[in-house]
Amino acid sequence: MNLAEQAEARSRDRAIVSYLAALILLLVAIARISVSDGSWFVIAGAAALSLTSLPIRLFEWRKLAPLLNDETTRDHRRSSFAAGFWVMLATAAVIAGLPGLHIFDAVVATRVVITAGLMAALIVFATLELRASR
Questions:
Q1: CA–CA separation, 26 and 112 (whole Å)
Q2: What pLDDT, in 10s, does the model give residues 92-120?
Q3: Could you tell me which residues come within 8 angstroms of residue 5 by beta carbon, excluding any fewer than 6 positions away?
Q4: Longest Cα–Cα distance in the chain
């Protein structure tokens, strides 16, 4: 398998891991919505870190890193950040605007907003990466 095929396989693996990270983030957020033991923070931080190029630069071979962080991937990352931003903004507006949702305290509302935004960013990134690998 040549270098381009290895990078393509790693890109598909990264997309699948992004889908799984979104699912795990949702499950942890639901299970720990009122518990503040730090598990949600660790999972959310790992999910956010996976959207950056830092894991590629730290854990990949030097030869694969430029192929895994090319223009297309950077564009996908940019698009996923934008989608995450808009989902966070919409979620915050819904929580603040609906009178029945004022049962949340600030910590829970923040977790809901961040979870929704990270999930949207992870799903958009994974979808764009898989679509590009076809």
A1: 9
A2: 998 888 777 667 778 888 888 999 999 99
A3: none
A4: 58
